[in-house]
Amino acid sequence: MTGSVAGLPVVWHPDCLRHEPAGEVWLGVWETGTELPQRASVLLDALTAAGAVVTAAEPHGLGPLLAVHDAGLIEHLATIWQRWEAGGYPAKYGRTRVVPYVFPTAGLLGGLPLRPVAAVHGEVGAFCYDTMTLVGPGSWESVRAAADAALTAADLVTAGKRVAYALCRPPGHHAGRASYGGSCYLNNAAIAAAALRSAGAGQVAVIDIDAHHGNGTQAIFYNRADVCYASVHVDPGAGWFPHYVGHADERGTGDGDGANLNVPLAPGIGDDGWLAGVSTLCAAVRRRGADALVVSLGVDAAAADPESPLLVSADGYRRAGELIGALGPVVAVQEGGYDLASLGSLVVATMSGIVAAGCTRCWP
Ligand SMILES: [Zn+2]
Questions:
Q1: Which of 232, 181, 186, 242 is nearest to 211 (CA)?
Q2: Active-site residue 174, yes or no?
Q3: Cα of 336 to ligand 1 centre, how many Å?
Q4: Which of 156, 164, 286, 316 could form a disulfide with 271 if both were Cys (CB 3.0 to 4.6 A apart)?
């Protein structure tokens, strides 16, 4: 298996290491969390050891981010840490990371419009929908670098590469047009998909094999016919994040009716059932046709991963890669995957499957 990603472009920016959320507040308790900077180092080491070639993520400016995200979210993420610090939250009150405490839900607003609020600590919950997605010094630099990595990988595929991999950290598929959460801030996969469309791809498919439903990506493209979203994930109906969305009857709306496909799976399903789900996604994408694919490549469905109960093996990931790689040019965007001991080999396995199926000569 090693060596089968030889020459694969791995798009990377060292700023992706700067985000240190310092854990997460989960069910009211500050825990160490699993979205650690070491995830990126482990992935970089494993891919380069297997022969992949590091390519620098190029700055793309705010334009491609605003094609997907609301300007208010970008402004919030770009400035919230400085304003948090200026407000004395870390130094005076010991609040060392940005954490929301009040959320303007439909019930709180009671039908009234969302107004700007005066207090910095009151503003956070208007954008961040959970308590596990903290912001600290360096977070924005990492978020920008991850988006630039996805955009550079999309550029490579637009220029004719058959496969490119973006080593994005933090991940992105839980971030919506104007919201963030689930350890995600900007939606790297959606940003790549929109860039592929702008560069001329008529139809783009996002295939999401992260263990969790990509609620942000689904929401961003839910009413669009030009980008279809297909996801296999642990059933939110069985009690798993993101709880409220990711069900099989969410099929898209308006122009996007029929362009959204969710395959929720039971906890404990293992390789065969998970791969059947991936096959269902691939068959749907083949039916619709796609000029380019974005893969939300989370490897947290693996048996050793602490964040899901799906029990997929490295061989299962390689076979999923083969199914996906046969569909067309692939921009792979890193999402979840939290078991530091196996993370690298799982991503190498998936990418080797994509490369093996997709081309005999992927890069000059
Ligand atoms: Zn996940």
A1: 232
A2: yes
A3: 5
A4: 316
